[in-house]
Structures are given as structure tokens and as C-alpha cells.
């Protein structure tokens, strides 16, 4: 082979290598294996029979998740308030900031492990993942748009006509297909590669002595509400925060049942390293502040969760050492692989 041929091959090889480096997301998506239930997780509750996950559906959902045309002035996407590096929360804000920098009343909840959720949002009201995006799209403080306009805006783009064709066999955009595509993206956002998961699956990891002691404390004092392995039981509870400045009454606003006042969805404790600030209104900036709330700051309200009213004491007794050990265990729930998974990133 002549020197000229070698040079041609070398240039071509460098071109191919450069292309690969320029498209790491595409490479990851090409490995698409569909929804995979972690072996230490229960069966999901989402009805996959009505929305089978495909690589094409996931790619469409990912494009829509990061599409600012879902908002009235084409500036806010789902990914604006659900940032991957923050486990799909809006890090740095106590409450979410939406269109025109309008302030919401709640902290953006994490998008992860939604295949196991029966209800959505801090205050409930949505019980089907395929319907959940309607709320942020139409809410005045969030995207301030309507679905009819969203579909009109994206239907004129060849990119989306092609993506809908690949995902659903037709270029026709419909509300149902739009919603199912977004669900396919969100369903794939599974966080299951923390140290805790590796320990539970016997993949070679072991807890340190402090983490193990924290795990024992967790099972004794926290697991009733934050049940393993999802670290939430999916219920709505009044955890003694008291009345906020905006008087957000949580689940009551949906049910109008008196005993539902100030009940909010129990959040997962996974990825706390990335999801601060904590609670529905982001009032606690640190994990220590959140733990101290349960130790000494629980407010006495008529429908306070019974688990926080025991033996004449409000809250959960936690010494300084207890908090340190609990923090060590909770650190094992952080999933660095999840927040760095290229399949879920915008670019």
C-alpha cells in the first residue's frame, strides 16, 4: 500500500473517531435496551401495555423534554426546571422559576423512578403519568401555554414530523402520542446504581461501619414513610412543617377533605446530594436542617402524621451522632451514574 493510501486511511480514521466523539448521546441511545427493571426493585405500576417503550419513542420524548416551544414564549422547556445534574430538580431555587421568571409555590420534584409512582406532584391531583405534563404546560407560573398551540408549533418542524413517524408510524401529531412520548423518556429515568443498590444486589460493595449503623437507624426511624428500595411509600402526609407564607394546603386543594390539609407527597430520599433544597417549598437548604426539623421543629397540627406524635413527643428523636450516621447512610443513595447518563442529557 502506498504512502498516499495510508494517509487517506489515517484521515478517514480520524474523521470517524471525531464523529464518534461528537455524538456520545447518539452512541448511548443506539445501545437502547428498553425499560429494564432493577433486580432489587418491585414490579412497576405503570401500564406499559398501553405505551410500549421503543428507542424511537424515547428519542422523540427526549427531544420534547428539552423543547422550549412547549412554553408560551418558547423559552422554557421541561428540562429548564428538571435539570439532570440535579437529579432532574431545579437546583439553587427554593421554588421553581418559570416563564418570564415567574415564581411558583413549590420546589420542582425530581424525575426518577416514575414507573413506580401512582400519583404525581407534591399535592397530588394527577394519577396517570401520561397526563402529568398537562399541568406544567398550562400553569401560569410555569409554561403558560396550551396543548393545541404546542402541537401547532412543533407540527410545522420537519424534525418532529420525522420523529413522530419513526416512533408511531405516522407524521400526524396528536395529544395522546405527544404525551406517550414524554412518558417514554421519563420512564427510562431510572436511578438504581447507587452504592445502596450495589450492596443490596451483592455486586461487591459493602457499607462502612458508620453507613451500616445509619442504615439500622434509618430502618428504625424513617423507613415507615421512606420505604425501600424506592425510599418513598408514595403516600401523602403532614410532616409538621406548619402553614407556609402562601398557605399551600397540599392534597386538600385536590380532595377538599379536611384531614388532607397540609399533606404532601412523601419524596424519595435518593440523590439527596443533588436535589437540595428540600421539602415541597424548598425551605431547608441542607440535609442537617431537614433532619433537625424532625428532631425539634415539628409543628403540632390537627392532622399531623401519627408517626410524628408518639409518647407525648412531636417528631423523631435524633442526637447529633444519629444525624451524622443517618447522613452517612443517605449518602449511599446518591447515584452518580444517573445524573451523568448521556441518554438523558440535552446535548
TrEMBL record:
Q: Which PROSITE patterns match?
A: CYTC, PROKAR_LIPOPROTEIN
Q: Which Pfam families match?
A: CCP_MauG
Is the keyword DNA damage assigned to this protein? no
Tell me where it resides: Periplasm
Q: Indicate yes or no for the key word Manganese.
A: no
One MF term in the entry's GO annotations: peroxidase activity
Residue ranges of every copy of the Cytochrome c domain listed in the record: 209-334
Q: Please provide the record's keywords in A-Z order.
A: Heme, Iron, Metal-binding, Oxidoreductase, Periplasm, Peroxidase, Signal
State the name under which the record lists this protein: Cytochrome-c peroxidase
Q: Which organism is it from?
A: Pedobacter gandavensis
